[in-house]
Specification:
The complex is a heterodimer of chains A (270) and B (385). Chain A has 270 residues and is α+β, with helices and mostly antiparallel strands. Chain A has a domain at 77-176. Chain A is built from twelve helices and seven strands. Chain A has helices at 4-37, 39-50, 60-64, 79-82, 91-95, 107-113, 119-123, 179-188, 194-204, 215-218, 234-241, 244-251, and strands spanning 133-139, 145-146, 151-152, 155-156, 158-165, 171-173, 255-256. Chain A has a four-stranded antiparallel beta sheet. In chain A, strands 3-4 form a two-stranded antiparallel sheet. The longest helix of chain A is centred in the first third of the chain and has 34 residues, at 4-37. Chain B is mainly alpha-helical. Chain B has 17 helices and five strands. In chain B, the strands form two sheets. In chain B, strands 1-2 form a two-stranded antiparallel sheet. In chain B, strands 4-5 form a two-stranded antiparallel ribbon. In chain B, β4 and β5 (110-111) form a beta hairpin. The chains are: A alpha+beta (270), B mainly alpha (385). Chains A and B meet through α1, α2, α6, α12 and β7 of A and β1, β3, α10 and α17 of B. β7 of chain A pairs antiparallel with β3 (86-87) of chain B, so a sheet runs across the interface.
Chain lengths: 270, 385
């Protein structure tokens, strides 16, 4: 004689089959009903996907924006711009990829450096005599110090970081803002009062220099960086040490293109 | 004597070196933009950019190789960014596509500009009008960059082969008569680029519906949204990727028209004007075979489904319009939808209702029947087993 459990087990596959069939049938029926009786729901969905509504809150459309680069960028940027950086400097968590916005003359040029120079390089001014500090390339993908990197003109597979030199020539990335503390601050921020936030910010940035390294500190002979030590070829070092842009920034309030290179008339048609 | 011969040789050597330098330079620039102002000194850095006052992320990076192979690749930066004379670029103006950009238009040998297209565009339904007849809410209207990007030249593919192999073979023949290789390459790329449609039908629909599905924007201009298209066989075909499926351009800018010159149906030259519809539906002379045997009766039929305007004239309540000013739409509906069409719309609504009841009733009865059959089976099974 078969036990009750045995009988139930025998019936189970048939029950499961019936159950799944009925569920699928019901879902299909509901979908069909929605399609026939509520077509406007589908339309609303497509409209919402196309245009952010004015009624949305201030940040709604920012959250909806996908990807770092608009698809139709007219000047044809490449995948390097959209490439995610798995180990960005912690500063970028709050300050973003374009942190410089104040100095009209230099903000874009300074932002151009964020792709290959970590924030800590300029914002923690080193003592040139400190033999315990140096600079090294850190691989963008692994976040580890490396001597193997490729690229040129701002498109490198690694980024320059300040490093502390340990015993036996070991190197460790110098992080002026502790990553764990920064994350903790982000997590707790909502619980802080405005004054507590201000205090926390000052403490977090205690190792940040008030006078960051500027263009002409690096782009000169025997400057802040030893470009040769970082692996730059000689020709490039010459270029970096005598870059035209530094002179342009240092010498002029505004630089005017010479008209000699302005070919022909360029006026809109009337 | 020896010195004299050297003196004679020297100018020739110098000339030869200059020729080599020039030729070398010409070829080395095949993948480079003509950067005479040295803009790439800064703009080749990928992280170059900033957030502007509106909070928009502005990327100032230019991939010179990609740009060189784009339709604007032979232009200098200042050809479009006219009057940009200062660093930092605080004097930058919005690019005006009607600017003469110092490219000779080969058919007239005059300086090229997009002014022809812009003039047509301004006279079209999308134009901003003129002082005598200004358009309200001009900020709603699309500008050049809303529809156009700087598309890249890609190797042409055709019935004899595809991609670079075909280009190499064809260009080989061109070089026989046109020895200036860069010129021939550019000309070939431009020509083959224009031989194909840049966007698929779905992409066209997505592009147009970016504005035409925005009910607020449409209401401001007295229009109903393009949902009326999405209730047609035309859309169903596009949606399911049917070859030859008609998108917006197929009817609103068929053969002989340009997308820059889309006109309202009341305009005598519009392809959707009742007088021109037979030609539009049959698409004579076009690659797309639509309705070659179209008659006036066929072409006179409604293409888009009835929408908000028909509902208004038929006296139906319009849903989801509480926050919209529909007065302009209502005004246009009165002139666009005749009493006869409103009657047709009402009949169609009854047919729609009939089918809704029929389908709902059939499915409902089927469910009820299945349920009852299941219960009866269980009872029977319970009694016997």
């Amino acid at each position: 004689m078969m036990s009750k459990v045995g009988k139930a087990m025998k019936k189970f596959p048939a029950f499961l089959f019936k159950f799944v069939t009925i569920v699928l049938f019901c879902i299909f029926g509901l979908w069909l009903l929605k399609l026939v009786y509520f077509p406007e729901l589908e339309l609303k969905k497509s409209v919402a996907a196309v245009q952010p509504s004015e009624k949305e809150d201030l940040f709604g459309h920012i959250l909806k924006r996908k990807g770092p680069v608009p698809q139709s960028h007219f000047h044809l940027v490449d995948e390097y711009v959209a490439q995610p950086e798995p180990y960005p400097p912690v500063c970028m968590t709050c300050h973003g990829t374009y942190p410089h916005s104040k100095g009209e003359k230099v903000r874009s040029l300074l932002n151009a450096h964020t792709g290959f120079v970590a924030c800590s390089v300029c914002h923690t001014r080193m003592d040139p005599g400190d033999e315990g500090m140096d600079f090294a390339w850190v691989d963008r993908k692994s976040g580890m110090i490396t001597t193997q990197f490729q690229g040129g003109y701002g498109k490198y597979s690694a980024k320059i970081y300040p490093v502390t030199l340990g015993a036996g020539g070991s190197k460790e990335i110098f992080r002026p803002v502790d990553e764990k503390d920064a994350q903790k601050f982000i997590d707790l921020k909502a619980k802080f009062t405005p004054d507590q936030i201000a205090e926390a910010k000052i403490k977090l940035h205690s190792h940040i220099t008030e006078k960051p390294v500027f263009c002409n500190d690096c782009h000169k002979k025997e400057g802040y960086f030893d470009f040769a030590k970082l692996g730059f070829p000689l020709q490039r070092i010459d270029h970096l040490n005598s870059t035209e842009v530094v002179g342009l920034i240092a010498k002029y309030e505004k630089f005017y293109f010479p008209s000699a290179i302005d070919f022909g008339l360029e006026k809109p048609l009337e | 004597m020896r010195f004299k011969s050297l003196m004679l040789i020297k100018p020739y050597c110098l000339a030869a070196i200059l020729v080599i330098l020039y030729v070398g330079n010409a070829f080395s620039q095949s993948d480079a933009i003509p950067d005479t102002e040295n803009c790439l000194l800064c703009h080749r850095y990928p992280s170059m950019g900033r957030f502007d006052k509106k909070g928009i992320k502005r990327i100032f990076y230019i991939n010179d190789k990609k740009f060189a192979n784009s339709v604007h690749g032979n232009l200098r930066c200042k050809s479009c960014h006219v009057g940009l004379d200062e660093i930092p670029h605080t004097d930058i103006k919005k690019v005006d596509c009607s600017t003469k950009c110092h490219v000779k238009e080969p058919s007239t040998n005059k300086e090229f500009s997009h002014i022809n297209m812009i003039e047509k565009y301004q006279a079209s339904v999308h134009g901003k009008g003129n002082k005598a007849k200004p358009i309200s809410f001009p900020e709603d209207l699309p500008t050049c960059k809303d529809c156009h990007n700087n598309s890249m030249y890609i190797p042409f593919s055709g019935m004899w082969g595809k991609s670079e192999a075909l280009s190499n073979e064809t260009l080989g023949r061109c070089f026989g008569c046109h020895p200036e290789k860069q010129w021939a390459k550019k000309f070939y790329s431009h020509f083959t680029q224009r031989m194909r449609r840049r966007r698929s039908p779905v992409e066209i629909i997505v592009l147009c519906t970016r504005c035409h599905e925005d009910s607020e924007k449409m209401a401001r201009h007295g229009l109903e949204t393009v949902d009326t298209y999405k209730d047609t066989f035309h859309w169903a075909q596009v949606k399911f990727g049917v070859e030859n499926a008609p998108d917006c351009i197929s009817c609103h800018a068929p053969v002989g028209y340009t997308t820059h010159d889309i006109r309202p149906r009341t305009d005598a030259i519009s392809p959707i004007n009742p007088a021109n519809r037979v030609k539009t539906c049959s698409n004579q002379g076009g690659l797309q075979t639509c309705h070659p045997g179209a008659t006036a009766g066929f072409a006179g039929g409604r293409v888009h489904a009835y929408g908000v305007k028909a509902q208004m004239v038929a006296g139906k309540e319009i849903a989801d319009t509480e926050n919209l000013d529909m007065s302009l739409v209502r005004k246009r509906a009165e002139s666009d939808i005749s009493a006869q069409e409103a009657f047709y719309y009402t009949i169609l609504e009854y047919i729609r209702l009939f089918y809704k009841v029929l389908i709902g009733g059939t499915i409902g009865f089927m469910c009820l029947h299945q349920f009852l059959a299941y219960r009866s089976g269980r009872r029977k099974h319970g009694k016997t087993g």
